[in-house]
Protein backbone atom coordinates (compact mmCIF):
# COMPACT_ATOMS: atom_id res chain seq x y z
CA UNK A 1 0.00 0.00 0.00
CA UNK A 2 1.33 3.43 -1.00
CA UNK A 3 0.22 6.43 1.04
CA UNK A 4 0.04 9.82 -0.68
CA UNK A 5 -0.54 13.41 0.39
CA UNK A 6 -2.20 15.55 -2.27
CA UNK A 7 -1.21 19.23 -2.13
CA UNK A 8 -3.58 21.85 -3.56
CA UNK A 9 -1.83 25.12 -4.38
CA UNK A 10 -4.54 27.70 -3.89
CA UNK A 11 -2.87 31.07 -3.39
CA UNK A 12 -3.02 32.62 -6.88
CA UNK A 13 -4.61 36.05 -7.14
CA UNK A 14 -4.29 36.91 -10.83
CA UNK A 15 -6.65 39.25 -12.67
CA UNK A 16 -6.29 37.82 -16.17
CA UNK A 17 -9.97 36.83 -16.08
CA UNK A 18 -11.11 40.17 -14.69
CA UNK A 19 -13.89 41.10 -14.06
CA UNK A 20 -14.98 37.52 -13.36
CA UNK A 21 -12.02 37.16 -11.01
CA UNK A 22 -10.64 39.77 -8.61
CA UNK A 23 -7.67 39.92 -6.25
CA UNK A 24 -9.96 39.00 -3.34
CA UNK A 25 -11.92 36.48 -5.41
CA UNK A 26 -9.52 34.77 -7.84
CA UNK A 27 -10.50 32.42 -10.66
CA UNK A 28 -10.14 29.17 -8.65
CA UNK A 29 -13.18 30.27 -6.59
CA UNK A 30 -15.29 31.54 -9.49
CA UNK A 31 -18.26 29.47 -10.66
CA UNK A 32 -17.57 29.35 -14.39
CA UNK A 33 -20.11 26.75 -15.47
CA UNK A 34 -22.87 26.73 -12.83
CA UNK A 35 -21.55 23.47 -11.41
CA UNK A 36 -18.49 23.54 -9.18
CA UNK A 37 -15.65 26.02 -9.04
CA UNK A 38 -12.18 25.01 -10.24
CA UNK A 39 -11.05 24.65 -6.62
CA UNK A 40 -14.03 22.46 -5.76
CA UNK A 41 -13.43 20.28 -8.82
CA UNK A 42 -9.78 19.87 -7.83
CA UNK A 43 -10.73 18.78 -4.31
CA UNK A 44 -13.48 16.45 -5.55
CA UNK A 45 -11.27 14.60 -8.03
CA UNK A 46 -8.67 13.91 -5.34
CA UNK A 47 -10.95 11.36 -3.65
CA UNK A 48 -10.71 9.20 -6.80
CA UNK A 49 -6.98 8.74 -6.17
CA UNK A 50 -7.86 6.18 -3.49
CA UNK A 51 -7.77 2.58 -4.69
CA UNK A 52 -6.67 -0.80 -3.29
CA UNK A 53 -3.00 0.07 -3.82
CA UNK A 54 -2.92 3.82 -3.07
CA UNK A 55 -4.47 5.62 -0.09
CA UNK A 56 -4.72 9.30 0.77
CA UNK A 57 -3.33 10.25 4.16
CA UNK A 58 -4.62 13.83 4.14
CA UNK A 59 -4.98 16.78 1.78
CA UNK A 60 -2.84 19.88 2.28
CA UNK A 61 -4.41 23.11 1.03
CA UNK A 62 -1.85 25.90 0.81
CA UNK A 63 -3.64 29.20 0.40
CA UNK A 64 -3.46 32.86 1.31
CA UNK A 65 -4.53 34.28 4.65
CA UNK A 66 -7.12 36.38 2.81
CA UNK A 67 -8.84 33.32 1.31
CA UNK A 68 -9.22 31.20 4.45
CA UNK A 69 -12.96 31.61 4.92
CA UNK A 70 -13.61 31.49 1.19
CA UNK A 71 -11.91 28.08 1.09
CA UNK A 72 -13.97 26.84 4.05
CA UNK A 73 -17.19 28.14 2.50
CA UNK A 74 -16.48 26.28 -0.73
CA UNK A 75 -15.53 23.07 1.09
CA UNK A 76 -18.81 23.20 3.04
CA UNK A 77 -20.70 22.73 -0.23
CA UNK A 78 -18.93 19.45 -1.04
CA UNK A 79 -20.06 15.99 -0.02
CA UNK A 80 -16.50 14.91 0.65
CA UNK A 81 -15.06 13.34 3.79
CA UNK A 82 -11.36 13.71 3.04
CA UNK A 83 -9.23 14.91 5.92
CA UNK A 84 -7.59 18.24 5.11
CA UNK A 85 -5.26 20.81 6.61
CA UNK A 86 -5.22 24.53 5.78
CA UNK A 87 -1.82 26.22 5.60
CA UNK A 88 -2.12 30.00 5.35
CA UNK A 89 0.63 31.97 3.68
CA UNK A 90 0.93 35.46 5.23
CA UNK A 91 1.90 36.95 1.84
CA UNK A 92 1.96 35.61 -1.73
CA UNK A 93 5.41 34.47 -2.86
CA UNK A 94 4.68 32.14 -5.78
CA UNK A 95 4.63 28.33 -5.79
CA UNK A 96 8.15 27.31 -4.68
CA UNK A 97 7.72 28.65 -1.12
CA UNK A 98 4.22 27.10 -1.11
CA UNK A 99 5.51 23.63 -1.96
CA UNK A 100 8.33 24.04 0.55
CA UNK A 101 5.74 24.73 3.26
CA UNK A 102 3.78 21.64 2.23
CA UNK A 103 6.95 19.53 2.28
CA UNK A 104 7.77 20.60 5.82
CA UNK A 105 4.15 19.93 6.82
CA UNK A 106 4.21 16.41 5.32
CA UNK A 107 7.69 15.09 6.05
CA UNK A 108 8.48 11.70 4.46
CA UNK A 109 5.35 11.80 2.31
CA UNK A 110 4.63 11.08 -1.34
CA UNK A 111 3.25 14.35 -2.67
CA UNK A 112 0.84 14.85 -5.56
CA UNK A 113 0.96 18.59 -6.27
CA UNK A 114 -2.09 20.08 -8.00
CA UNK A 115 -2.91 23.66 -9.06
CA UNK A 116 -6.38 24.72 -7.93
CA UNK A 117 -7.24 26.83 -10.97
CA UNK A 118 -6.75 24.58 -14.01
CA UNK A 119 -9.36 22.96 -16.23
CA UNK A 120 -9.04 19.21 -16.88
CA UNK A 121 -11.74 17.58 -18.97
CA UNK A 122 -11.34 13.87 -18.16
CA UNK A 123 -10.73 13.07 -14.50
CA UNK A 124 -10.28 9.33 -15.13
CA UNK A 125 -7.33 9.97 -17.44
CA UNK A 126 -5.80 12.33 -14.88
CA UNK A 127 -6.20 9.82 -12.04
CA UNK A 128 -4.70 7.02 -14.14
CA UNK A 129 -1.71 9.21 -15.06
CA UNK A 130 -1.09 10.14 -11.42
CA UNK A 131 -1.30 6.48 -10.34
CA UNK A 132 1.42 5.57 -12.86
CA UNK A 133 3.71 8.24 -11.47
CA UNK A 134 3.06 7.29 -7.83
CA UNK A 135 3.80 3.60 -8.48
CA UNK A 136 7.19 4.37 -10.10
CA UNK A 137 8.31 7.09 -7.69
CA UNK A 138 11.64 6.93 -5.86
CA UNK A 139 13.79 9.24 -3.71
CA UNK A 140 15.68 10.73 -6.64
CA UNK A 141 12.83 11.27 -9.07
CA UNK A 142 10.30 13.95 -9.98
CA UNK A 143 7.34 13.15 -12.24
CA UNK A 144 5.75 15.80 -14.41
CA UNK A 145 2.45 15.60 -16.27
CA UNK A 146 2.47 17.27 -19.67
CA UNK A 147 -0.09 17.93 -22.39
CA UNK A 148 0.30 18.15 -26.15
CA UNK A 149 0.79 21.77 -27.33
CA UNK A 150 -2.10 23.22 -29.31
CA UNK A 151 -0.19 26.34 -30.42
CA UNK A 152 3.14 28.05 -29.86
CA UNK A 153 2.04 29.74 -26.66
CA UNK A 154 4.87 31.61 -24.94
CA UNK A 155 3.06 31.71 -21.58
CA UNK A 156 3.59 27.99 -20.79
CA UNK A 157 6.53 25.87 -19.75
CA UNK A 158 7.73 23.36 -22.37
CA UNK A 159 9.15 19.94 -21.54
CA UNK A 160 11.29 18.12 -24.10
CA UNK A 161 11.73 14.36 -23.76
CA UNK A 162 13.10 11.17 -25.26
CA UNK A 163 11.30 7.86 -25.66
CA UNK A 164 7.87 6.81 -26.84
CA UNK A 165 6.97 4.73 -23.81
CA UNK A 166 4.36 5.76 -21.23
CA UNK A 167 7.01 7.09 -18.88
CA UNK A 168 9.41 9.35 -20.77
CA UNK A 169 12.78 10.83 -19.81
CA UNK A 170 12.90 14.62 -19.65
CA UNK A 171 15.87 16.18 -21.43
CA UNK A 172 15.10 19.86 -21.03
CA UNK A 173 12.66 22.22 -19.39
CA UNK A 174 12.03 25.65 -20.94
CA UNK A 175 9.84 28.03 -18.95
CA UNK A 176 7.90 30.55 -21.08
CA UNK A 177 10.02 30.57 -24.25
CA UNK A 178 9.62 33.33 -26.81
CA UNK A 179 7.41 32.82 -29.86
CA UNK A 180 10.18 31.51 -32.15
CA UNK A 181 11.65 29.09 -29.62
CA UNK A 182 8.17 27.79 -28.77
CA UNK A 183 7.56 27.13 -32.48
CA UNK A 184 10.89 25.29 -32.74
CA UNK A 185 10.09 23.12 -29.72
CA UNK A 186 6.71 22.16 -31.18
CA UNK A 187 8.17 21.47 -34.63
CA UNK A 188 10.64 18.99 -33.15
CA UNK A 189 7.69 16.86 -32.08
CA UNK A 190 9.05 15.81 -28.69
CA UNK A 191 7.71 18.58 -26.45
CA UNK A 192 4.73 18.85 -24.13
CA UNK A 193 3.29 21.76 -22.19
CA UNK A 194 3.89 21.61 -18.46
CA UNK A 195 0.51 21.14 -16.73
CA UNK A 196 1.82 22.22 -13.33
CA UNK A 197 1.10 18.81 -11.80
CA UNK A 198 4.05 17.20 -10.00
CA UNK A 199 4.57 13.89 -8.21
CA UNK A 200 7.54 13.65 -5.85
CA UNK A 201 8.57 12.86 -2.31
CA UNK A 202 8.63 15.71 0.21
CA UNK A 203 12.24 14.95 1.10
CA UNK A 204 13.17 15.07 -2.59
CA UNK A 205 11.79 18.59 -2.86
CA UNK A 206 13.39 19.77 0.39
CA UNK A 207 16.78 18.41 -0.63
CA UNK A 208 16.49 20.00 -4.09
CA UNK A 209 15.36 23.44 -2.90
CA UNK A 210 18.10 23.48 -0.26
CA UNK A 211 20.62 23.14 -3.10
CA UNK A 212 19.06 25.41 -5.72
CA UNK A 213 17.72 28.18 -3.46
CA UNK A 214 18.99 28.23 0.12
CA UNK A 215 17.12 31.45 0.87
CA UNK A 216 13.74 29.84 0.21
CA UNK A 217 14.70 26.71 2.14
CA UNK A 218 16.02 28.53 5.22
CA UNK A 219 13.28 31.17 5.35
CA UNK A 220 10.43 28.69 4.97
CA UNK A 221 12.03 26.21 7.38
CA UNK A 222 12.24 28.92 10.03
CA UNK A 223 8.72 30.16 9.35
CA UNK A 224 7.34 26.62 9.70
CA UNK A 225 9.19 25.97 12.95
CA UNK A 226 7.67 29.16 14.37
CA UNK A 227 4.16 28.53 13.03
CA UNK A 228 1.03 28.98 15.09
CA UNK A 229 -2.19 26.96 14.94
CA UNK A 230 -5.64 28.51 15.24
CA UNK A 231 -8.34 25.86 14.96
CA UNK A 232 -8.25 24.68 11.34
CA UNK A 233 -5.61 27.22 10.34
CA UNK A 234 -1.85 26.69 10.42
CA UNK A 235 0.02 29.98 10.11
CA UNK A 236 3.74 30.12 9.28
CA UNK A 237 5.65 32.97 10.92
CA UNK A 238 5.14 36.10 8.83
CA UNK A 239 8.54 37.73 9.37
CA UNK A 240 10.53 34.61 8.49
CA UNK A 241 8.27 33.80 5.54
CA UNK A 242 8.58 37.30 4.06
CA UNK A 243 12.37 36.92 3.84
CA UNK A 244 12.00 34.16 1.25
CA UNK A 245 12.44 34.98 -2.43
CA UNK A 246 9.45 34.67 -4.77
CA UNK A 247 10.00 31.84 -7.27
CA UNK A 248 7.85 29.36 -9.12
CA UNK A 249 8.40 25.61 -8.74
CA UNK A 250 9.63 25.54 -12.32
CA UNK A 251 12.24 28.29 -12.00
CA UNK A 252 13.37 27.32 -8.50
CA UNK A 253 13.92 23.57 -9.03
CA UNK A 254 12.50 21.88 -12.14
CA UNK A 255 14.74 23.69 -14.64
CA UNK A 256 17.77 22.78 -12.52
CA UNK A 257 16.69 19.28 -11.43
CA UNK A 258 18.71 17.28 -13.96
CA UNK A 259 21.86 19.31 -13.25
CA UNK A 260 21.69 18.42 -9.53
CA UNK A 261 21.36 14.70 -10.23
CA UNK A 262 17.59 14.17 -10.14
CA UNK A 263 15.75 12.00 -12.63
CA UNK A 264 12.90 13.93 -14.20
CA UNK A 265 10.20 11.74 -15.73
CA UNK A 266 7.23 12.70 -17.85
CA UNK A 267 3.76 11.22 -18.39
CA UNK A 268 1.52 12.63 -21.10
CA UNK A 269 -1.88 13.75 -19.85
CA UNK A 270 -4.05 12.71 -22.80
CA UNK A 271 -7.06 14.90 -22.16
CA UNK A 272 -8.04 18.51 -22.71
CA UNK A 273 -6.24 20.81 -20.27
CA UNK A 274 -5.97 24.57 -19.79
CA UNK A 275 -4.66 26.89 -17.13
CA UNK A 276 -7.43 29.33 -18.12
CA UNK A 277 -4.94 32.17 -18.25
CA UNK A 278 -6.94 34.22 -20.76
CA UNK A 279 -10.48 34.57 -22.02
CA UNK A 280 -9.76 32.72 -25.27
CA UNK A 281 -8.97 29.65 -23.15
CA UNK A 282 -12.63 29.45 -22.10
CA UNK A 283 -13.12 27.58 -25.37
CA UNK A 284 -11.89 24.60 -23.32
CA UNK A 285 -14.91 24.75 -21.02
CA UNK A 286 -17.81 25.92 -23.14
CA UNK A 287 -19.23 24.53 -26.36
CA UNK A 288 -19.57 26.77 -29.40
CA UNK A 289 -22.77 26.94 -31.41
CA UNK A 290 -22.91 26.71 -35.20
CA UNK A 291 -21.89 30.37 -35.52
CA UNK A 292 -18.80 29.88 -33.37
CA UNK A 293 -20.39 31.69 -30.43
CA UNK A 294 -20.13 30.81 -26.73
CA UNK A 295 -23.26 32.02 -24.94
CA UNK A 296 -23.61 31.98 -21.16
CA UNK A 297 -26.57 33.69 -19.54
CA UNK A 298 -29.50 35.62 -20.99
CA UNK A 299 -28.30 36.59 -24.46
CA UNK A 300 -30.22 37.46 -27.62
CA UNK A 301 -28.20 37.54 -30.84
CA UNK A 302 -28.68 37.98 -34.56
CA UNK A 303 -25.97 37.85 -37.23
CA UNK A 304 -23.34 37.40 -34.51
CA UNK A 305 -20.26 35.25 -35.09
CA UNK A 306 -17.16 34.02 -33.23
CA UNK A 307 -18.18 35.84 -30.07
CA UNK A 308 -17.98 34.80 -26.41
CA UNK A 309 -20.63 36.27 -24.10
CA UNK A 310 -20.77 35.70 -20.33
CA UNK A 311 -23.83 37.48 -18.95
CA UNK A 312 -24.04 37.10 -15.20
CA UNK A 313 -26.72 39.66 -14.34
CA UNK A 314 -28.23 41.40 -17.38
CA UNK A 315 -29.80 40.57 -20.69
CA UNK A 316 -27.27 41.22 -23.45
CA UNK A 317 -28.52 41.76 -27.01
CA UNK A 318 -26.16 41.53 -29.97
CA UNK A 319 -26.81 42.46 -33.58
CA UNK A 320 -24.33 42.13 -36.44
CA UNK A 321 -21.09 41.80 -34.45
CA UNK A 322 -18.24 39.32 -34.56
CA UNK A 323 -14.92 38.44 -32.92
CA UNK A 324 -15.82 39.84 -29.50
CA UNK A 325 -15.45 38.74 -25.89
CA UNK A 326 -18.13 40.28 -23.66
CA UNK A 327 -18.09 39.70 -19.90
CA UNK A 328 -20.79 41.29 -17.78
CA UNK A 329 -20.71 41.29 -13.96
CA UNK A 330 -22.67 43.29 -11.42
CA UNK A 331 -20.17 46.14 -11.25
CA UNK A 332 -18.10 45.90 -14.45
CA UNK A 333 -18.48 45.22 -18.17
CA UNK A 334 -15.53 44.11 -20.31
CA UNK A 335 -15.59 44.08 -24.13
CA UNK A 336 -12.57 42.76 -26.05
CA UNK A 337 -11.86 42.43 -29.74
CA UNK A 338 -10.48 38.90 -30.18
CA UNK A 339 -8.13 40.13 -32.91
CA UNK A 340 -6.61 42.91 -30.81
CA UNK A 341 -3.00 42.02 -30.00
CA UNK A 342 -2.99 44.18 -26.86
CA UNK A 343 -2.38 42.33 -23.61
CA UNK A 344 -5.13 42.31 -21.00
CA UNK A 345 -2.31 42.41 -18.46
CA UNK A 346 -1.27 45.82 -19.77
CA UNK A 347 -4.89 46.95 -19.88
CA UNK A 348 -5.37 45.97 -16.24
CA UNK A 349 -2.55 48.38 -15.32
CA UNK A 350 -4.62 51.20 -16.83
CA UNK A 351 -7.75 50.10 -14.95
CA UNK A 352 -5.71 50.04 -11.73
CA UNK A 353 -4.77 53.71 -12.13
CA UNK A 354 -8.41 54.72 -12.55
CA UNK A 355 -10.22 52.40 -10.12
CA UNK A 356 -8.05 50.00 -8.13
CA UNK A 357 -10.93 48.79 -5.95
CA UNK A 358 -12.76 47.25 -8.91
CA UNK A 359 -9.77 44.94 -9.47
CA UNK A 360 -9.67 43.90 -5.82
CA UNK A 361 -13.21 43.64 -4.51
CA UNK A 362 -15.88 41.30 -5.84
CA UNK A 363 -19.52 42.31 -5.50
CA UNK A 364 -20.00 39.27 -3.21
CA UNK A 365 -17.60 38.78 -0.30
CA UNK A 366 -17.50 35.77 2.02
CA UNK A 367 -16.82 36.01 5.73
CA UNK A 368 -16.71 33.42 8.55
CA UNK A 369 -20.21 34.48 9.62
CA UNK A 370 -21.73 34.42 6.11
CA UNK A 371 -21.49 36.84 3.18
CA UNK A 372 -22.41 40.26 1.88
CA UNK A 373 -23.35 41.44 -1.61
CA UNK A 374 -22.81 45.01 -2.78
CA UNK A 375 -26.01 46.21 -4.46
CA UNK A 376 -25.12 49.85 -5.05
CA UNK A 377 -22.09 52.05 -4.43
CA UNK A 378 -20.99 55.62 -5.01
CA UNK A 379 -18.59 57.94 -3.23
CA UNK A 380 -20.50 58.49 0.02
CA UNK A 381 -23.12 55.73 -0.13
CA UNK A 382 -23.05 51.94 -0.23
CA UNK A 383 -25.96 49.48 -0.09
CA UNK A 384 -25.29 45.84 0.85
CA UNK A 385 -27.34 42.72 1.37
CA UNK A 386 -25.89 40.87 4.37
CA UNK A 387 -26.55 37.17 5.07
CA UNK A 388 -25.60 35.86 8.52
CA UNK A 389 -25.52 32.09 9.00
CA UNK A 390 -27.50 30.48 11.87
CA UNK A 391 -25.86 30.81 15.30
CA UNK A 392 -23.28 33.25 13.91
CA UNK A 393 -22.30 36.82 14.67
CA UNK A 394 -20.21 39.71 13.38
CA UNK A 395 -17.53 41.36 15.47
CA UNK A 396 -18.28 44.01 18.11
CA UNK A 397 -17.09 47.07 16.21
CA UNK A 398 -17.44 50.74 15.41
CA UNK A 399 -16.82 53.01 12.42
CA UNK A 400 -15.04 56.33 12.30
CA UNK A 401 -16.50 57.70 9.08
CA UNK A 402 -19.80 55.98 8.26
CA UNK A 403 -23.33 55.54 9.60
CA UNK A 404 -25.36 52.38 8.99
CA UNK A 405 -29.09 51.80 8.53
CA UNK A 406 -30.24 48.17 8.89
CA UNK A 407 -33.53 46.71 7.58
CA UNK A 408 -34.40 43.06 8.26
CA UNK A 409 -35.57 41.07 5.22
CA UNK A 410 -35.62 37.59 6.79
CA UNK A 411 -35.13 36.18 10.28
CA UNK A 412 -34.62 37.98 13.59
CA UNK A 413 -31.59 40.19 14.23
CA UNK A 414 -30.19 40.47 17.75
CA UNK A 415 -28.26 43.73 18.04
CA UNK A 416 -25.79 44.73 20.69
CA UNK A 417 -25.33 48.51 20.64
CA UNK A 418 -23.21 50.42 23.15
CA UNK A 419 -23.57 47.54 25.67
CA UNK A 420 -27.38 47.26 25.40
CA UNK A 421 -29.17 44.55 23.41
CA UNK A 422 -32.45 44.42 21.47
CA UNK A 423 -34.09 42.52 18.61
CA UNK A 424 -35.60 43.60 15.31
CA UNK A 425 -37.76 41.42 13.06
CA UNK A 426 -38.72 41.30 9.38
CA UNK A 427 -39.61 44.77 8.01
CA UNK A 428 -38.21 46.49 11.11
CA UNK A 429 -35.09 48.68 11.08
CA UNK A 430 -32.48 50.37 13.25
CA UNK A 431 -29.79 53.04 12.93
CA UNK A 432 -26.12 52.79 13.87
CA UNK A 433 -24.36 56.17 14.05
CA UNK A 434 -20.63 56.53 13.43
CA UNK A 435 -18.78 55.88 16.66
CA UNK A 436 -21.47 53.54 18.03
CA UNK A 437 -20.10 50.20 19.20
CA UNK A 438 -22.31 47.51 17.70
CA UNK A 439 -22.66 43.84 16.86
CA UNK A 440 -25.08 41.97 14.58
CA UNK A 441 -26.06 38.49 15.89
CA UNK A 442 -28.17 35.67 14.45
CA UNK A 443 -29.34 33.43 17.29
CA UNK A 444 -31.93 31.70 15.10
CA UNK A 445 -31.78 28.42 13.14
CA UNK A 446 -32.29 30.07 9.73
CA UNK A 447 -30.24 32.59 7.78
CA UNK A 448 -30.61 36.23 8.78
CA UNK A 449 -30.84 38.61 5.81
CA UNK A 450 -30.64 42.39 6.14
CA UNK A 451 -30.17 45.39 3.90
CA UNK A 452 -27.43 47.72 5.13
CA UNK A 453 -27.28 51.30 3.87
CA UNK A 454 -23.96 53.01 4.60
CA UNK A 455 -23.63 56.82 4.45
CA UNK A 456 -20.73 59.03 5.44
CA UNK A 457 -17.46 60.68 4.50
CA UNK A 458 -16.03 57.22 3.64
CA UNK A 459 -17.80 53.92 2.97
CA UNK A 460 -14.71 51.72 2.88
CA UNK A 461 -14.42 48.15 4.19
CA UNK A 462 -11.27 49.33 5.95
CA UNK A 463 -13.30 51.57 8.27
CA UNK A 464 -13.71 49.00 11.05
CA UNK A 465 -12.43 49.20 14.62
CA UNK A 466 -12.90 45.80 16.29
CA UNK A 467 -13.27 45.34 20.05
CA UNK A 468 -14.34 41.68 20.20
CA UNK A 469 -14.20 39.00 17.51
CA UNK A 470 -14.80 35.28 17.97
CA UNK A 471 -12.81 34.59 14.77
CA UNK A 472 -9.61 36.22 16.03
CA UNK A 473 -9.55 39.07 13.50
CA UNK A 474 -7.93 42.39 14.45
CATH superfamily of the largest domain: Spore Coat Polysaccharide Biosynthesis Protein SpsA, Chain A
Shape: globular
Q: Kindly, what is the distance between the CA atoms of the first and last residues, rounded to a whole number of angstroms?
A: 45 Å
Into how many domains do the coordinates divide? 3
- How is the largest sheet built, in terms of strand order? 21-22-23-31-26-29
Average pLDDT confidence is 91
**DSSP helical segment count:** 11
> What's the CATH topology name of the largest domain?
Spore Coat Polysaccharide Biosynthesis Protein SpsA, Chain A
Structural class: alpha/beta
Task: Estimate percent helicity.
Answer: 10-25%
Characterization of the model:
By secondary structure, the chain is α/β, with parallel strands linked by helices. Helices cover 21% and strands 36% of the residues. The chain folds into 3 domains: 2-274, Spore Coat Polysaccharide Biosynthesis Protein SpsA, Chain A; 286-354, no CATH class; 363-468, Jelly Rolls. The strands form 7 sheets. It has a 6-stranded antiparallel sheet. Strands 7-10-8-9-13 form a 5-stranded mixed beta barrel. The longest helix has 13 residues, at 123-135. The mean pLDDT is 91.
Amino acid sequence: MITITPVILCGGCGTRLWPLSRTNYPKQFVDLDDDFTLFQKTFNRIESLNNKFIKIKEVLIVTNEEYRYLVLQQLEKLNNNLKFRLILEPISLNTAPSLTLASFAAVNSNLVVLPSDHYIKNDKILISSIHKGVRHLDDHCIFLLGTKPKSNQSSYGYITYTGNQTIKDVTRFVEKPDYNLAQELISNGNSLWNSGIFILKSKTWLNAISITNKLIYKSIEKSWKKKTTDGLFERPDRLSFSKSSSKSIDYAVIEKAISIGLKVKLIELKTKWSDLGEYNSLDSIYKKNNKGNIIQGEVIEKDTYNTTVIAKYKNISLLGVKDLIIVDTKDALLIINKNNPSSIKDFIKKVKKINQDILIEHSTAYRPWGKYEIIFQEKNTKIKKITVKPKSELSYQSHKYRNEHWIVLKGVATIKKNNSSFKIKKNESTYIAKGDKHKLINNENINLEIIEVQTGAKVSEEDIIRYEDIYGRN
